[in-house]
Amino acid sequence: MQVTAAEIAQMLEGQLYGNGEVVIKGVAPVEEAREGDIAFVIQRKYQRFLRSTKASAVIVSQQTQAVAPACITVSNPSSAFLKVLRLFQSQKLQSPQGVHPSALIGKETRLGKGISIGPHTVVGNRVEIGDGVIMGANIVVGDGCRIGEKSFIHPNVTLREGTEIGRNVVIYSGAVIGSDGFGFIEEDGKLCRIPQLGKVIVEDDVEIGANATIDRATMGATRIGKGTKIDNLVQVAHNVTVGKNTAIAAQVGISGSTIIGNNVKIGGQAGFVDHIQVGNRASVGARAGVTKSIPSGASVSGYPARSHMTTKRVEAAQSKLPALLKTIHEQEKRISQLGERLMNQEVGPKSQKEKNEPQRHGATEKT
Fold this sequence. Notes:
ten-stranded parallel beta sheet, flat, about 375 residues, alpha/beta, Udp-n-acetylmuramoylalanyl-d-glutamate--2,6- Diaminopimelate Ligase, Chain: A, domain 1, UDP N-Acetylglucosamine Acyltransferase, domain 1, twelve-stranded mixed beta sheet, 40 strands, 2 domains
C-alpha cells in the first residue's frame, strides 16, 4: 500500500508541514523507521529520536516541534496512531473473495456475500456464514455453527459444532472454540466423562488470541460478552460467563461456572477457582490466585488474591525478612551469651565469705 503524507493528514484532520507528496509505504517506531515509513511520537521520552529518525513522515502532538520531511500535528497522537494502523492493516488483511477449490462445504450451509474461504478449510453441515467473513486456510467449522458478518477467522482455528460467533469477531490461529469441558465424575473407581451438551456463544466485536481455548458448556452456554478481548493461551472453562469489554491477558485460566463482570481487567497468568463471581470494573493483577468472589471496582493481586494495597504491604514486609532474620540471629547470640554469664555467676567460685567459713570452723574444732 502507498499513500502520500498529505492524504494521511487529510484523513487525520491534522496540520501538515513539509513535503506532502512524500510517499508512505508502512508504519514503524520512530527510532527504527526508514525512508517510506511514517512514525509516531506519543510519549515525551521518545521525542529525542525526532532528531535522528529516518522516517519520511512523523505524527506528533500540537505541542511538539515539527521535524522530518513531512510532519503532521494532531491534538491526539494516540487516536491518530490507531487510525493509521487500521489504514495499513485493512490493506494487509485483504483476501481474495470466494471459496478456494480445495475447501469442503457441507450440506445445507449458507454462505454470505463477499466471503473468503481459504484452502483446505472444512465447513460442516447447516453452517451459517455472514456477509464479508474472511476465513483462512485449514480451518474446521463443525455442524450447526454460525459466524456473523465481517468476522475474521485466521488459519488453523477449530470451531466445534454449535458454536455461535457474532459480528466483527477476530479469532487468531490455533484457537479452539467449543471443545468439551473438563467434566468427570467417579463411578466404580473410574473417572467417567460428563457429556457436554451445551455450546459457546461469542458476541460481537470480540477478539480471541492465538491458541486460546474456550470450552462448551455442560448445559446451556459458555458466553463471551460483546467487545471483550482475550489474549493468547487463555483457558476459559465450561459454563463461564465473561461480561462486556473485559480484557484478559495471556495464560489466564478461568475455572468452570465462574462469572466475570463487565469492564474487568485481568493480568497475565491469573487463575480463578470455579463458581465465583468477579464484579464489574474489577482489576486482577498478574499471577493472582483468585480463590473467592471479588466485589465490583476492587483491585486485587497476589496469592491468595487480596486487596492490592494489602499485597504491596505484605511484599514490602517480606523484602525485609533477610534483615529481620539476621537481627534475630544476632539477638539470639547475645541472649545466649548473657545467659552463660549469668549461669557462671551463679555456679562460679565461692565468695570470700564462703571460703573463710570452713577455716573458722576448722580452727574451732582444733581449739
